[in-house]
Each structure stands twice: as C-alpha cells, then as structure tokens.
Amino acid sequence: MVKKMGNALQEFIAQETSAGIILFCAAVAAMVAVNSALNPHYLAFLDIPVAIQFGGFEIAKPLALWINDGLMAIFFFLVGLEVKRELMEGQLSSVEQASLPLIAAVGGMALPAAVFVYFNWSIAENINGWAIPAATDIAFALGVLALLGKHAPVSLKILLLAIAIIDDIGAIIIIALFYTAEVSSTSLMLAGVGTVILFVMNRMGVVRIAPYVLVGAFLWVCVLKSGVHATLAGVVAALAIPLNAKDGSSPLKHLEHILHPWTAFLVLPIFAFANAGVALAGLRISDLMAPLALGIAAGLVVGKQLGVFGFMFLATKVGLVQRPAGVSWLQLYGLACLTGIGFTMSLFIGNLAFVDPEQIETVKLGVISGSVISGVLGYCLLRFASAPDSSVKTKPA
C-alpha cells in the first residue's frame, strides 16, 4: 500500500514538473504573439464568439472566457480530487502531517496579501487585487525544483506539494467569498439541488463516473448563471466522487489519473497562452513601479518568503512542528522563494479581480516579474544549499 502511494506521488510530481516546462513554453508563445505581427490575429482568436443554445437557453461568450470559465473548471475539478485524496489518505490526512504545510501556507497567503495592501491601501480601484499574490503555481514551482534533480530531497518536494495544495484550498475559499458578482437566487437554488444530487449518489454508493459528469455539467451551468464563479462547480463535483468502492477500486484515483495529463498538458497551457501575453512596446521601469504591479511582485517575492519561511521557522522554534529530516534551513528558505511563483492561479484571480484591460495588463506584468524573480532566486538558493560544503575545512594538525 505504502509502495503504491509512493509510486503515485512520484508519477504526480513527474507530471507536474513536465507540465511546468510546457506552461513556460505556452507563456513564451503568448509573449511572442502579443509582441509581434501576430498580435491582431492573437487578439482576434481570443475574441472568437462561441455559443451553446438549446431553445431559448443560451450561453454566449468570447473564446477567452470559455477558457477561463469552462476549461479552468476542469482544472479546479482536478484540484478538488487531489484535495479530497490528500485529506483522506495523503499528506494532509493527519494533524502531524498537515501541521507544517498548513502553517507555512497560512503565512504564505496572509503576508503577500498584506504586502499588496501596503502598496495599494490608498488606491480604491486597485485594492480588489489583494489576493493575487497569495497563490502558488504548483506546476511551475515543482518544475523549477525538478531542475535540481537528485540534489533536492524528496521530503522537500512533498512539503512543496502539500503547501501548494493547501494554497489551492485557500484560493478556492477566497474566490467563493470575495470574487462573486451579483447572485441569482434561482440559479443558486438549482445549483444547490445539483449539489444535493451529487452527494446523494455518493451516499448511495454510485461508482460510475458518467452520472457524476452529467450532474456536474448541470451544476456548472447553474453556477455560471448564478453569479458565483463557475470554476467552483468543479470543486464541488469533485468532492462528491467516491474515493473507494466496495469492490476495492477507487473511482476518484481512476478519474484523477485520467484527467491529470489532459489538465497538465492541455488545459493549463491553453490558459497560459490566453492570459500570459504582456505587450512590451513602450514598457518603462516606471510601469514596474506602479502600485498595482509593485504590490503583486513584492507580494510574490517578499511576502511569500517571509510568510512561508517565517511561519515555519517560528512554529519550529516554539515546538509546534518539526523541521523535515534531511532538510536544511537554507533549503526551506529556497522552497519559500519557489512558492512565490504565482503564475496560473495569480493570473486567474487577477482576471476575477479586474475588468479594466489596463489593470489586467498591469496584473500580468506584476505576476510574471514576481514569479520570474521568485523562481530564479529559489533555484539559486536551493542549488547553493545542495552543493557539497567546500567552505568547512579541517585545520592542519
């Protein structure tokens, strides 16, 4: 059993690290498209109208919103599956296992938000972006960690994975509580009916995936029309999927295994390509110093480091948790830097926080600059921390 869990964890990390490379390529492709003669075609592509109509019922959105509201619901569905598995039998299934990453993740969400608010407190139109630097991109972070190869302890990778998963839980809660538009009571009531049906099927022992998918699609439409962000329907549907069946199979793990490569290598790269393009023409240093961009970048670079490492250090010193075996403080600090790679989740929250195109462009600038600095700094620190110690030499007799 333990061996199977270890193999599953290794496969998960391997896919995430490969996905980080694909995400990077998608982001570069977006930057090239925006800053070349392809710009009009790129913007026209994202603005293609796409509609689904059944009688008088219609959902009509430009392609970019279908990506952000539809494809990302699949990503959040996978996140929900991962969260449920980790809580029930994984790295978060006991207080002892969950304490260190939970404390680190809380610090890694609170302090970046505080740093952002510090730079934007007096600017009312910016303050809604406070949650943007609180997120961590697990694929990119594990991708950078993978560059260290065997120099990075497995316990460090597991800790980063656990922190990122708790971070995702926090992001889901934040989106539900703070980034919800005007609510349609009728649609919300229908969404509640769909939720009840999902969990009744779970309690009745339904293990076939198809009924959950059908009810989940109904739930997504209701949530989309309710004013609550549609991606949250993915999380709710995922929590209803049974972890274990009476015949010994695991519908949840089977579905997670099927969805993970599609999400890692298709859904997230498409999202990155649609959202990571920043126009560099006319860009000045002063643009990076604008409160919105600076607040996001500083939140990711400074806030994440202080929050994740500071909370772990204090919790260890007062005896609440123990430092992972075989991991140095410098390695933990390097890991804290890697959690400042916000990218996918930060861009996603930025699109929820603002509608002004200029603000969204500034968000991209802050997210990309902060994520790049965090990734490079984290890699350098971990590389240095993992190198053979040549500074300690024995004195000659």
Features:
397 residues; mainly alpha; two-stranded antiparallel sheet; 2 strands; 3% strand; globular
Q: How far apart are the termini?
A: 53 Å
Helix content: over 70%
How would you name the oligomeric state of the polypeptide chains in this document? single chain
Q: Tally the beta strands.
A: 2
In round numbers, the mean pLDDT is 86
User: How are the strands ordered across the major sheet?
Assistant: 1-2
Using only CA atoms, what is the Rg? 22 Å
Unreliably modeled segments: 390-397
User: What percentage of amino acids are in beta strands?
Assistant: under 5%
Give the overall form.
globular
Please describe the biggest sheet, giving its number of strands, its sense, and whether it closes into a barrel. Answer: 2 strands, antiparallel
Number of helices: 15
How would you characterize the overall build of this protein?
By secondary structure, the protein is mainly alpha-helical. Helix content is 71%, strand content 3%. It has 15 helices and two strands. The protein has a two-stranded antiparallel ribbon with strand order 1-2. Helix 4 crosses helix 6. The longest helix is centred in the N-terminal third of the chain and has 33 residues. It is globular, with a radius of gyration of 22 Å.
